[in-house]
Amino acid sequence: MGAIVLGLPEARRNEAAALFRSRGVPHRRVEEWKYSDLKSALGEVGVGAKVAAWQTSELPAGVEMFDLSQANPPDWVRAHFAQPSQNVMSAASLALSAGGVALRVLKGAIVTELLKLDFTQHGHVRGLLVLEEGASITLVEGVGIAEFRNVGFEIVLGENAALDHVRVSPNAGDGVLVEEVVVQVAAGARYRAHFASFGSKLSRLELEIALHGEGAEAHLSGVSVLDGKRHSDVTTHVIHRHGNTGSTQLFKHVAGGQGRAVYQGKVTVAKGANGSDSNQSAKALLLGENAEADLKPELEIFADDVKCAHGAAVGDLDAESLFYLRARGIPEAEARGLLLHAFLEDAVAEIVNTDQRELVRTELLTALKAVA
Amino acid sequence: MLEIKNLHVAVGNKEILKGLTLSIKAGEVHAIMGPNGSGKSTLSYILAGRAGYEITEGSVTYNGEDLVALAPEDRAAKGVFLAMQYPVEIPGVTTMTFLKTALNSQRRKRGEPDLDAIGVLKLVRAKAKTLNVSEEMLKRALNVGFSGGEKKRLEILQMAIFEPKLAILDETDSGLDIDALKLVAEGVNALRGPERAMLVITHYQRLLDYIVPDRIHVLAGGRIVVEGGKELALELEAKGYEHIVKEPA
Prior knowledge:
The complex is a heterodimer. By secondary structure, chain A is an alpha/beta fold. Chain A has helices at about 10-25, 40, 75-80, 90-95, 320-325, 330-350, 355-370; strands at about 55, 65, 100-105, 110-120, 125-130, 135-145, 150-155, 160-170, 175-185, 190-195, 200-210, 215-225, 230-240, 245-255, 260-270, 275-285, 290-300, 305-315. Chain A has one domain (about 10-315). A 9-stranded mixed sheet of chain A has the order 1-4-6-8-10-12-14-16-18, covered by helices on one side. In chain A, strands 2-3-5-7-9-11-13-15-17 form a 9-stranded mixed sheet. In chain A, helix 1 (about 10-25) packs across helix 4 (about 90-95), helix 5 (about 320-325) crosses helix 6 and helix 6 runs antiparallel to helix 7. The longest helix of chain A is centred in the C-terminal third of the chain and has 18 residues, at about 355-370. Chain A starts with 9 loop residues before the first helix and ends with a helix. Mean pLDDT of chain A is about 95; it is low at about 1-5. Chain B is an alpha/beta fold. Chain B has a 6-stranded mixed sheet, with helices on both faces. In chain B, strands 2-1-4-5 form a 4-stranded antiparallel sheet, covered by helices on one side. Chain B has a two-stranded antiparallel sheet with strand order 7-8. The chains are: A alpha/beta, B alpha/beta. The interface between A and B is medium-sized, with 24 and 28 residues.
């Protein structure tokens, strides 16, 4: 472990180190990692103790930054950084990384410019994004290709804050990329996230989202297009801690070759969180006999008077639709591409920012051409 | 234009068409009538190239070419169009995008230049107006949330846009009220011409009041059992299929 330069309570890092030591690198016999055997993907390399890198775009007005490798963090970092967590890889990133970035959007700041944050290189890194009360911004998170990277990201939304989080994970070949995002959503605040993933040897995005106050909302959508031996895992846990909170999840996957798409989505409605509303849907199209999708929506309800719906479906391209398009003169390859794009479209349409939406569409088209 | 000779078609182990022979010349409109299960839809799908049908005997020649050897998209480019009984709903593809992609795919295959977005829009709008297809329908996902009548009108709109040489209408009248039926029939009649042949497949005589065929064939048990002029439809209407189908056996 590197020297402690964070200037944060040493106790938290020690706790995290202890948690990681006791559990070790997750593998397929750990239920939540059944479809994503991190230990075997890493092999001899292991998780190491390198510190990965990050960079941001020029900060828009209303946004502040603190480099977590520096001493004497300001109060807003102290208040929110490294909250206790039972997540083992998040513990690893805290224990093993002496670097990262903290960003704050000031109270009431409505930022229309995009905030870009890229995590790059090999190793562990931490991120913190705090939106103060009434603040609003779009975060575009970039995922750099690396042999191995583990990002521990904490996001805190104050009351009535609104964050649009867009994350595009390119085809990272043999890379092993994991990220744990923990989101706290206060009353009246709204977290929207859109993920596009083109997979890697092992690619896992874990989200733990807690809706803490009246009217808090989380809306997640994601698409993945996987070819060759690419793997992509989105594992979510949305916790409705307060009543009258809402969450939606819509995930669409296309897997060809020996691609493997994983969605594990758990929704917990805590005791007393009455009047909560949640909906989750995950669908996958498999384009070959060796492609695989593991979709596991899950509900855990301890409250009354809640509306919770979930569904999952795995299938092939609809033969009738394909015939219809071909009978109108559209060549087979193009017809397949059109149908695949159409399949993903409702999840893409959720992306609010027009430029980002078009960017994702373009990347999907390219990836679909390869996979179809 | 279309020569079907002794056509035998099986689906799985079941023979559906058992020696069907039919000839249509350019400029003619033929109707195929027949009871349910007689093989009407199988014939339309064989002509359009849907998978799952096996030709065990016989041939289908289109303008001198073996039609069944062609992929569905190549048939379309060569002017074969099937207005389907059950048009497919495709969420995520807008009707306009679909029309543009299909039209330009056909043109490309024929070695014609693409029509640009404005050109397509003009063409589609002009044809849509006469068929009472609204702008709003064109913006919606293909056939999604369309009523039965809207779906059928969109099929005829496609026919008007693609201007096929051989148009096959499979039960285009089913699910239409009388106003929609008249509208569809007008659309079809507008396309009648010396260069074009049509095959109208229907269960009921009703449609043939509006699209008057040159020739009527009655299909039963996988073959044509009776043929005649337009007056045959009236006879069928009056006496029912059972009577007519039994007679020649």
